């Protein structure tokens, strides 16, 4: 069986270093807010090119703390609007509504599955104060037009970088890592991420000194120093063991992302089925001198689209290939957001009804990658 993601194999790649890092953390006798956390925060900030990295409990907390900090600093207020891609994972939206802000859903593009920057301006109102840009599937969602809109309308740009560790925005004049493009960014180190911990962990990155200070305080019960609480905070801190694991793995992130690109390249060049669409293939097969290595995608997920998803998923399972769906139900059809259930978002709905994720990771041998492509090509739906 080819697993969708074999975390045991992923961890085994660096088992000795991980075990040594964990051993040092255990033997230090200091398990929160210690040297391992300071080391990882420093290294990850340097990796991205930001002044600050603040560890926290998980990716959702990272997003929630950013919006909460902006409220505490007077940048955002109750009822302010935040534009967000309609096809995102629900955590992005939860972080907005949890803070008493209004999420404004904007459709993605079918060719990139990212927020459609052509539709943003028409969604902006006098209450719009921020854009939450989600680098879905590991692809950079930032465009120069989005940056221009943020400047024109004085909007904060918050990145959800949970799926795009190590990704770049490749511009005409600069390359910048995702997580360092906007005013603040949230990162999830859930075990299945490209940079994954051995449990839950997250971080906020920013160049804003005041925001970083506020986020750190809010994640530590709201304290500015021991037993002094200027804010009503929460408990959301990365622990020393997870920080140590992440620091051990960080040095390999770029090379492992390159390995994911090799898998994706094989799929783009060898999957040829009338029943399947590969978003981004045309662009991928025409690399430019500016971006010959496709550094704007780290392929946390390799998505394909098919109107025969259930049939294809079952067929691949029968052939010994594991797959996943990201995601079967769009946020505006979820019961927890019943007020949106009548919305018509046809592009989002099509993506959520057709998306299927193929195995794509750094521990897949070439023969497995080739076998997955062959299986997809051999597939014929029951009622084509």
Features:
single chain, 384 residues, alpha/beta, two-stranded antiparallel sheet, 11 strands
Notes on the structure:
The chain is an alpha/beta fold and 384 residues long. The protein contains 13 helices and eleven strands. The protein has helices at 7-12, 15-28, 35-48, 59-72, 90-97, 144-153, 209-218, 240-250, 253-270, 281-284, 309-318, 346-354, 366-378; strands at 52-56, 81-85, 102-106, 128-134, 156-160, 168-170, 175-177, 184-188, 202-206, 302-305, 355-358. It has a seven-stranded mixed sheet, with helices on both faces. Strands 6-7 form a two-stranded antiparallel ribbon. Strands 10-11 form a two-stranded antiparallel ribbon. The longest helix has 18 residues, at 253-270. The radius of gyration is 21 Å and the shape is globular. The two termini are 27 Å apart. The model has no long low-confidence stretch (mean pLDDT 96).
Topology, please?
Elements: H1 7-12, H2 15-28, H3 35-48, E1 52-56, H4 59-72, E2 81-85, H5 90-97, E3 102-106, E4 128-134, H6 144-153, E5 156-160, E6 168-170, E7 175-177, E8 184-188, E9 202-206, H7 209-218, H8 240-250, H9 253-270, H10 281-284, E10 302-305, H11 309-318, H12 346-354, E11 355-358, H13 366-378
Parallel strand pairs: 2-3, 2-4, 4-5, 5-8
Antiparallel strand pairs: 1-9, 6-7, 8-9, 10-11
Helix pairs in contact: 2-8, 3-8, 4-5, 4-7, 9-13
């Amino acid at each position: 069986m080819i697993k969708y993601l074999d975390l045991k194999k992923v961890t085994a790649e660096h088992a000795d270093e991980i075990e040594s890092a964990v051993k040092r953390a255990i033997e230090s006798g200091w398990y929160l807010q210690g040297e391992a956390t300071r080391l990882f925060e420093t290294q990850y900030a340097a990796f991205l090119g930001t002044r600050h990295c603040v560890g926290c409990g998980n990716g959702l907390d990272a997003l929630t703390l950013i919006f909460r900090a902006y409220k505490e600093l007077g940048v955002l207020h109750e009822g302010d609007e935040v534009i967000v891609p309609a096809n995102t994972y629900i955590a992005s939206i939860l972080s907005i509504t949890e803070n008493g802000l209004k999420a404004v859903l904007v459709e993605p593009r079918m060719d990139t599955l990212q927020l459609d920057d052509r539709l943003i301006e028409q969604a902006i109102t006098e209450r719009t104060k921020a854009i939450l840009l989600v680098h879905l599937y590991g692809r950079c969602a930032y465009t120069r037009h989005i940056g221009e809109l943020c400047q024109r309308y004085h909007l904060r740009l918050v990145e959800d970088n949970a799926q795009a560790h190590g990704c770049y925005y490749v511009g005409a004049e600069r390359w910048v890592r995702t997580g360092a493009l906007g005013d603040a960014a949230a990162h999830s180190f859930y075990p299945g991420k490209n940079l994954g911990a051995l449990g839950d962990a997250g971080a906020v990155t920013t160049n804003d000194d005041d925001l970083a200070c506020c986020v750190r305080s809010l994640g530590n019960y709201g304290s500015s120093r021991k037993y002094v609480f200027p804010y009503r905070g929460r408990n959301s801190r990365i622990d020393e063991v997870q920080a140590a694991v992440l620091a051990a793995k960080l040095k390999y992130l770029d090379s492992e992302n390159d390995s994911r690109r090799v898998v994706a390249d094989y799929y783009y060049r060898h999957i040829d089925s009338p029943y399947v669409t590969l978003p981004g293939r045309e662009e991928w097969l025409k690399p430019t001198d500016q971006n010959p290595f496709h550094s704007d995608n780290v392929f946390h997920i390799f998505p394909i689209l098919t109107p025969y998803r259930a049939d294809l998923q079952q067929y691949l399972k029968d052939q010994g290939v594991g797959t996943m769906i990201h995601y079967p139900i769009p946020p505006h059809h979820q019961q927890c957001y019943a007020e949106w259930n009548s919305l018509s978002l046809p592009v989002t709905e099509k993506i959520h009804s057709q998306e299927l994720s193929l195995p794509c990771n750094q521990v897949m041998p070439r023969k497995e990658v080739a076998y997955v492509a062959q299986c997809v090509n051999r597939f014929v739906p029951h009622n084509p």
